[in-house]
Amino acid sequence: QWYQRRVRGVNRGLLKIGSSLVGVNLLVGVYLVVYLSYIRNKPDWTNHTHPALIPVATLCACVGLVLCTVALWPVWGFLTLPILFTLFMGLVMLATLLPV
């Protein structure tokens, strides 16, 4: 089948590492936004609590995006970048659906 040839081209090791890094990014976001803001009621968490987490989350997201792009390039080719950008942007925009 044609889809089996495409799936065999995926570098699963890089995809697992990239997905894990994106997961770390999401966990840091959930900790900062949901736990500190809503549960602990700390509105100023960006200035005083764990200032190194935002650069760590940014680095994890960037490296995860690159690794997922390299891993999925054999499947979609040049369309990998817009497809993954759309998926990751959807994940980021999902946070706007949280109740205030």
Features of the shown structure:
mainly alpha
Structure description:
Helix content is 78%, strand content 0%. The protein contains five helices and no strands. It has helices at 2-8, 12-39, 45-48, 53-76, 80-94. Helix 2 (12-39) packs antiparallel against helix 4 (53-76) and helix 4 runs antiparallel to helix 5 (80-94). The protein is elongated, with a radius of gyration of 16 Å. The relative contact order is 0.16.
Set out the fold topology.
Blueprint: H1 2-8, H2 12-39, H3 45-48, H4 53-76, H5 80-94
Helix pairs in contact: 2-4, 4-5
Quick rundown:
The protein is an all-alpha fold. The chain is built from five helices and no strands.
Helix content: over 70%
Average pLDDT taken over every residue: 83
Shape by Cα distribution: elongated
How much of the sequence lies in strands comes to under 5%
End-to-end C-alpha gap = 48 Å
Q: What is the oligomer described by this structure?
A: single chain
Compute the gyration radius: what is it?
16 Å
Structural class: mainly alpha
The low-pLDDT segments are: none
Spell the H/E element sequence: HHHHH
* Record field, number of beta strands: 0
Discrete helix count = 5
- Sketch the major β-sheet: none
